[in-house]
Amino acid sequence: MSYHTLISSVSDIDNKTRHEMAKLYLTNYDGCSEVRFCRDLAEKDEALLVYTGGRLVGFTTFEVYDRTWNNKAIRVIYSGDTIMDRKHWGQQALAFAWIKRMGEIKRQHPSIPFYWFLLVKGHRTFRYMPTFGKTFFPHWSASRGDLKPLADQLAGEKFGSDYNRLTGVVEFPFSHGHLKSELAEPNPEEIAKEAVRFFIERNPGYKQGHELVCICEMEEFNMKPLTKRLFRGK
């Protein structure tokens, strides 16, 4: 099946596409509404849209901003909602286009350290982390506790008291969106994966919309060969 991807500024997305994005999201998530979805979307900078046959089948959104950490300037890519139509699970168009876009953003300021700030409320999303990065925080075997202070800073800024520094999880008092029950539960093949078991252990409230805070260095030294090639735009 052939896929087409489009990077769009959120401000340029028309109402029809916003409605299609919300419909796709709400097909897979409970605890949310189109109004809340559109409000969250408006806080992001760009969206990566995935089409096949002229129909929207997936997307991810993100925000890029600058911060100071350890008295040094850094850039942060904060991922928002990411969803693919179930019929199109397994496609690579979204991941490939996303990492290419990250490389473009890195090249705007190549000397400034670049970090991916991701909140995860589903085990399938968590499995993106080892696809892109060799190490990240938190990880089931790689010790990257050096990134926890950055996770605490970024999550504390955005979520205040809803962020639990002890667990590393954003624990909303009520769901801001959680996977439908038939999608949240891992099947036997999935639960056999170490990453899936680790995610469930670290974020036991994921079915209620709790979100595990993750940080990954978006630098070539931390990338696997395919990711690095896409990041370079080659």
What general form does the structure show?
Answer: globular
Count of structural domains: 1
Largest sheet: 8 strands, mixed
Strand adjacency order, main sheet: 1-3-4-5-6-10-8-7
Total helix count? 10
| Total strands | 10
Report the span from N to C terminus.
23 Å
Share of β-strand residues:
25-35%
Category from helices, strands and their pairing: alpha+beta
> What are the low-pLDDT stretches, counting only 5+ consecutive residues below 50?
none
Describe this structure in words.
The protein is about 35% helix and about 25% strand. It has ten helices and ten strands. The strands form two sheets. It has an eight-stranded mixed sheet with strand order 1-3-4-5-6-10-8-7, with helices on both faces. It has one domain (about 60-230). The protein is of the alpha+beta class. A hairpin with a 2-residue loop joins strand 4 (about 55-70) and strand 5. The chain has helices at about 15-30, 35-40, 95-110, 125, 130, 150-160, 180-185, 190, 195-200, 225-230, and strands at about 5-10, 30, 45-50, 55-70, 70-85, 115-120, 165, 170, 180, 210-215. The model has no long low-confidence stretch (mean pLDDT about 95).
